[in-house]
Amino acid sequence: GMVLPVLTAGLVHLSKISVGTLQTMDRATYSKRWVEHDYVNLLSTVVHSLLLPAMQSTIKGQVAHVAALSAMRLANTCPSASWVDQVCQWASLVLKEDLSLDNSLESTMINLANLLVCARATPLPERIDTLILCLNKIRLLPATSMAPHGIHTAGLLLDTDGMKQYRRPTRVAFMAEIALSLFIDGPLDSQGHTDNTIRSNSMLSFLNSPEVSEVLKEGDQGM
C-alpha cells in the first residue's frame, strides 16, 4: 500500500515531462523510447492492474484508501481516459466507507473534501446521493475549526477564554463546495448530451430530500 503513493507521484511527474518528448519523437523510428514515455498506457496499466483490484477486493482498509487517493490523482492527470468514470466510482465507494468510520475532526474533514472532489467525475443526477451523504456529515461539524499553527487561510482571529485563536470556516466552506458541485457542471446527461432539465431536476431531487429539509429547518430555527 505504501508503494502506491510513490508510484503515483512518479507517473504524474512522467505525464508532465512526456508530452513535449512525444511530440518531437517519431513513433516508427523511436518505438522503444515511445513505449517508455507513453504515460497514457502506463497509467491505464496501473489503474487496471493495481488500483481497481485493490478497491474491488475490499472497500475497507488502508490499501483501499491509498488506492482511492492514487486513483483520484491519476484521473486528474488523464481526465479524458476511458477508465476515469469507473475508477472514480470505486474511489467514491471507498471514501464513503472511510467517512462512515468514527474519525477525528481533521480526518472527517479530509475525507469529506476528497469525496466532494471525487464526486465531480460523476454525472450530476448520479451525484445527488453523494452530496446528500456529505451534507449529513457537514451538519455535524463545528462552525469553525482551529487552523494549524503556521497555516494561513481565510478565517477569523477569535478570542476564546482569553486566548486568541485563528479559526477557519468548516460547515460554510463545505456547503459552498456542494453548491459549486450543483451549479458548475453543464446540463449534460451521462452520455454527454445537452439536456436543460438535468440541473433543474437534480436540484429538485437534492432540495426535496429529507436531509436537506432538516438542514433548512435548523437554519430557520437559528434565525
**What does the main sheet amount to?**
3 strands, antiparallel
Low-confidence stretches: 20-27, 29-35
The gross shape turns out to be globular
Summing up helix and strand content along with how strands pair, one would put the structural category as mainly alpha
What is the β-strand count? 3
Q: Percent range for helical residues?
A: 55-70%
Radius of gyration: 21 Å
The overall pLDDT, averaged over residues, is 78
Summarize the structure.
It contains 10 helices and 3 strands. The chain is mainly alpha-helical.
Description:
The chain is mainly alpha-helical. It is globular. It has helices spanning 3-23, 31-37, 39-57, 62-77, 84-100, 105-119, 124-138, 171-183, 197-207, 210-222, and strands at residues 144-146, 156-160, 163-169. Helix 3 (39-57) runs parallel beside helix 5 (84-100), helix 6 packs parallel to helix 8 (171-183) and helix 7 (124-138) packs parallel to helix 9. Strand 2 and strand 3 (163-169) form a beta hairpin. The longest helix has 21 residues, at 3-23. The model is unreliable at 20-27 and 29-35 (pLDDT under 50). 66% of the residues lie in helices and 7% in strands. A three-stranded antiparallel sheet has the order 1-3-2.
